[in-house]
Amino acid sequence: MKNSVKIKCLEHEDRPREKLLDKGAAALTEVELLAIMIGSGYEEKSAIELAREILSAYGPKLHQISKMEIGEWLQIKGIGEGKAATLMACFELGRRRRLETALNLKRVECSKDAFEFLLPHLGDLRHEEFWVLLLNRGNNVIAVKKISEGGLAYTSVDPKRIFTVALQHHSNSVVLAHNHPSGNLKPSDDDRRITRKLQAVGVELELSVVDHLIISGNVYFSFADEGLL
User: Fold this and answer.
1) Structural domain containing residue 38
2) Which of 91, 62, 63, 85 lies closest to 73, judged by CA?
3) Model pTM?
4) Is the dihedral of CA 182, 165, 167, 202 positive or negative?
5) Among 6-10, 84-88, 106-110, where is mean pLDDT lowest?
6) Contact at 8 Å (CB) between 116 and 101?
7) Are residues 144 and 213 located together in one domain of the fold?
8) Number of domains in the chain
């Protein structure tokens, strides 16, 4: 096997599974964790080498890999349907864990709280979506609703839809949110315009727009924090 080292040939403490059992999952690198998820390599590459190749080509951030669809996984040599299904299931479990954590949050006291609640819905998307977080008078979360879904760089926003949903749930305030799949957190002119418009409509309805978050991966931009509301 040229330029390749099989995992079974590594020192005991350097084998991902053994290292996890000895030291715990937190001690492993992203490459090692991904290698365990992959399970085994193929004739030319070990699971560790395959994991390193995937992170280099499709990463380096894990949230970028978590967005990959079945067709993309199957284009990688050494990844068949079984491994692709396992990988996608692992990433989906991670997303659902974040959502479960967010559902236990209940109260929103700052932009970070709102971000934690919205991240499971928007963090890993490859197209733009617009969501709204509905809050009661005590800033407790009533519901989180998707308003629209668009393409890679744009999604339409209908103020009537947003405030109809908010009034139906007897909300006192809302947090607006959409994602930027490109990774650029800077608000566009359209983002600023629609935020001002929605804020003005909210004033008329006595329903406050307390923030607008732009989310990309595991980071966000807050209009409120930046003094844009």
Assistant:
1) 7-98
2) 85
3) 0.64
4) positive
5) 6-10
6) yes
7) yes
8) 2
